[in-house]
Amino acid sequence: MTSAFRDRQFVAAWLAAALPGLIFFHHRVPVFILLAWLVFHAWSWKTLRQERDGRSVLRSPIALGFATNTAVLAVLFLIHRDNWHPLDHSTRLLLALPAMAAIVILRPSCRPYFTAAAFGGIVAGAVAVWEVLITAGVAPSDPILGFSNRSKFSYVSASVLMLLCAASCLPGDERPARPWLVLGIAGALVAIVLANARSIWIATVIPLTIWMWSSPRFSLASRVRITGGSALLMAALALTPGSPVNDRIMLGLQQYEQYRPGQAMFDDSIGSRLDMLQVGLSMFREHPWVGVGPGQFTEELAPYVDSGMISADALRVGNPHNEYLSALATGGVIGLLGLMAVLAGPLLYFAGSIRRSGASSRSGACGLAGVLVVGLTAIFSAMDPLFHVHFSTIYYALTIAILGGFADTARRAAA
């Protein structure tokens, strides 16, 4: 191994670590890191092109899933002859693949990445405490930190929690120091609770519960203790007046009781979602195969306002807050297949890593992290828009590409 190769290996390790380590300082961090990976790939092109391992990335389920999504959207744009601007989000998925190829070829350690994730969890907790408890804000929304949307803040916090739970399965020489890991998990949990987003509570609990009850790592007694303790904690948060969880649940119940079809306002999160659900289903029934056209959901809302199905104020919502329904409404069955490819491709890849290597190996632990992140994303996408937003699309793509690279590298090293 030459010194130039080691230098590039070092840069790749810390470039990967920059994503979870810096994400909570500004939501545009993933954009800059994506650009840095592309520059790094161009700078290292002579070294990278000599290795055959990187070409396997193009045949992986991750790459096929991302490419399928882009191809489906391109076909839909040709059918509808709409403007191509929404295709930007999909092509950003493909731009993350050079990061995966570089990691597969250079084989950097994954320890800096998971150590940085622990740091990110601590920062997330500190941000949430400052924004919600100290400055008495509704949610983390300090413009300096860049998170004006509590749902996206909570999604990133939950993804860091998933990474750290999987990191606990890494071999000792790759696992971050245990106190650092515990602090990161605690910080991410604090951020998730204080961020006050109902969707993320569900999206976090389900993948972690399935993992705990299916993993041989946990004894039956441990499963019962963890489940019971978690249930008691959630019940206390949900039933204690004045807690963020209780306030959010009570607000949701109040909005549901006051809901009148077609009369929900923009700030009525439950009512506007229910109205948009009806609109999205109506669009799908009218155009079941190819939808109304990618990016055209808002443009097609005017007739539904005229018919009284939604209020004019609800037009500000702009999407059904459900990626699956949005895909069906704008792309029909074909559009839904494109969305499912973005989730199913990585899920198959990471599940294969766990099956081949076991969750306690480096490859299996990285695979577990990938499965948990994909599971979180799949559930969260049913309640909030994720792939409609540039930063969250890039964050998901980079996280999947980096974890995919680490999983592949570890598998080849163990072979």
Give a written overview of the molecule.
Helix 7 packs antiparallel against helix 8, helix 8 packs parallel to helix 10 and helix 8 runs antiparallel to helix 16. This protein has 415 residues and is mainly alpha-helical. Helix content is 70%, strand content 0%. About 1% of the residues have low confidence. The protein is built from 17 helices and no strands.
Separate helix tally: 17
Average pLDDT over all residues: 87
Work out the number of β strands. Answer: 0
The portion of residues assigned to helices is over 70%
- The SSE string, one letter per element, is HHHHHHHHHHHHHHHHH
Query: Given the C-alpha coordinates, what overall shape results?
Result: globular
Rounded to the nearest angstrom, the distance between the terminal CA atoms is: 19 Å
Structural class: mainly alpha
Low-confidence stretches: 139-144
Percent of sequence in beta strands: under 5%
Radius of gyration: 22 Å
Largest sheet: none
